[in-house]
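Support reply, case 0932

Customer input (verbatim):
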Amino acid sequence: MADVNRGNRPLSPHLSIYRWQMTSASSIFTRITGNGLLVGALLIVWWLTALAAGPQAFARADAVITSWFGNLVMVLSLLALWYHTLAGVRHLIWDAGHMLDVGQSEKAAYVIIAGSVVLTLLTVVLV
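Our regenerated output:
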């Protein structure tokens, strides 16, 4: 039976008392980076398709990818790739039954953020 008092109740009462947690943010960032990797992947697919399409198409795609915007997208995609990879390793560790308490999970979230930034900088500098 339908709830006739539905309009009188607050939409999300837990939001007023909810404390933001690093583990929640890490989970959300993992989802965002997973979806964000599609942007970089589509840009690379466009570049490779343009390479096969001919010199004019390649010149246009190459100009976009080597512009400041293309470089920004590629560096952010690299950051997303490192973050998503490290978060996947953390999930493998969790699946093995380790680091499941809140303190260790929050430390792991900070390590993933710092590790992804360091690995991105190393990749940009060394490659």
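We compared this against your earlier run and they match. Two observations from our side: Helices lie at 22-53, 55-65, 68-95, 102-126. The chain is about 75% helix and 0% strand. Please reopen the case if you see a mismatch on your end.
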